[in-house]
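Page header: ASSEMBLY MODEL / two components / 700 residues total.
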Amino acid sequence: MKLLTTLAISVILALSSSAAEKYKLKLAATYESNVPALGEAPKKFKELVEKMSNGRIEVRVDYPSKHKAAFAVLDMVKSGQYDLGYTASYFYKGKDAKLMLFTTVPFGMSVSEQHAWYNYGGGKELSKKVFAEHNLVTFLGGNFGMQMGGWFKKEIKTIDDLKGLKLRMTGLGGEIMSKLGVNINTIPIGELYMALEMNTIDAVEWVSPALDISFGFQKVAKYYYTGWQEPASENEFYINKKLFDKMPEDLKYIIEAATKVVSDYVYEYATYQNAVVLDRIKKEHPDIKITSFSPEIMDALKKATDEILNELSAKDPMFKEILESQRSYMKIGREWTKISDCAYIKNSDK
Amino acid sequence: MKLLTTLAISVILALSSSAAEKYKLKLAATYESNVPALGEAPKKFKELVEKMSNGRIEVRVDYPSKHKAAFAVLDMVKSGQYDLGYTASYFYKGKDAKLMLFTTVPFGMSVSEQHAWYNYGGGKELSKKVFAEHNLVTFLGGNFGMQMGGWFKKEIKTIDDLKGLKLRMTGLGGEIMSKLGVNINTIPIGELYMALEMNTIDAVEWVSPALDISFGFQKVAKYYYTGWQEPASENEFYINKKLFDKMPEDLKYIIEAATKVVSDYVYEYATYQNAVVLDRIKKEHPDIKITSFSPEIMDALKKATDEILNELSAKDPMFKEILESQRSYMKIGREWTKISDCAYIKNSDK
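Prediction written out in full:
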């Protein structure tokens, strides 16, 4: 009887220890909690993994207001200071230029093209290789769709109109614009509207209707241009590779599935909000002209883009390999987009 | 001691019974196992839920070769003969016309628009209401993207060219075409290529490059038209509502997350394969002309579509409510698609 009791107790202990094997994970977010979709995304992830794992995973989400390091998420997850991150890889291009290729590329793929490339055209394998060197496992975390080209106070017709223009624009887009003679300016976010109103700047590029509206740019800049610089901005979940590799298989599946649910949420919500907010802007400001840069300007931007990308390719064979993989898929992927969605929408337009 | 033993044993029993609470689910699939993406989808679902639930859910996938009822999946899941289904709702339009609105609508939304509407524009709530009456809980299961307008042996320039034309086309698209004087034909799948070659039919509509290629239509019909009839064909997972409602919360989350992963897989893989196969077709058959119907034909098709949809709306207030919800979102959603992806792709085209 004693044997049975001992046996029984040890079985109980084994069972409950296995049931209690909990992962308390800390996630560092790049976007503040109140940013539409992107601020909500890590909270959704937390809810999903906690529910699906029935509490075996617990996630604490820290926003920049807490960790004070919005653009150091990569390092914090790499080092293990945080277990997870929610961010966009192009913020780390100063550290490793090729990482930005997994976010979006000027004149690059649209969302559906990029997802097809990433998942079935070799992108995921390249990403795995690149991020393993940073001790990271990554999962796509939600695309915000095409970013608009910006709000301009005056109509831009020729390349001459761009020369000397004071434009607030960050990242690769800004670098490319400066090659065309634009004065790139990086005024702090809080001062953007005032700077535009007071003509300290002539134009500002932010994101797309859903995120632009709260700044009020539409009140003072009447030309809103279609984008070219970030056709499909992808966000990503980072997870410390050492930690992830050791997790049980069911929890790995749960984490990956949760990132997919969040990805869909971000893209679908962004698409919806961009449509709703664009409609509101147009109704409240019927004087706004939504337009595109001229073929002359687009050609010049494309040329400047290729110069920069080719320089970066020359410096890093892996950058080159990823870029070539994207270009090779995009060539055929774009043909399909053109004869399917684009032609359909053009043909059914009244 | 005896008390302790009894207690211990009952705890073991409780723990193991809870651990052993298994759901052995049967899934009926509409598409045969070897159909690209759509045949694979239920297998992926099975793998995902089994892994994430650590075996608490087991799924047996039955294909049409087994259950012999590809287009009776709705009834089989409704009645509980099967627990789950993988199918497309427009196959059941004879039973309940409004169900097809959740698959795709001629001249309706593109994939990104439809997903935005479904998830954030009120679609999901309408779907829930409609399918609850069929004792079903549904989850989107993967969009195959735009379906092409078909392979035609002769160029179609005017409405007159359509009159008397023998076209193999099923569903609402066929009904609409017949309003324009087309002879709609529903030759069995196995005889399609021969019928086209022997001029028993003049044209055939199937799906899109990824699924069309294996029939060999490209060898005998040289005009491939952009579609209008199914701009975003969505597939769905059905689950018996009585069963689903009683499942524990973690398993409900796991099932829903798995459907999202599968959804992404289908759309991304279809996008990728359509691009790859289109490229192959163009290379192997450089004489093929990929083109669009004229504005005159598109207008006539649109008019015939509206007539049919309005008739159906008049018969069923819920049909009307769903259609109006879609039209209302599409009006603003399309504006965003046009100034974002479509304008970007047009502007960056060389």
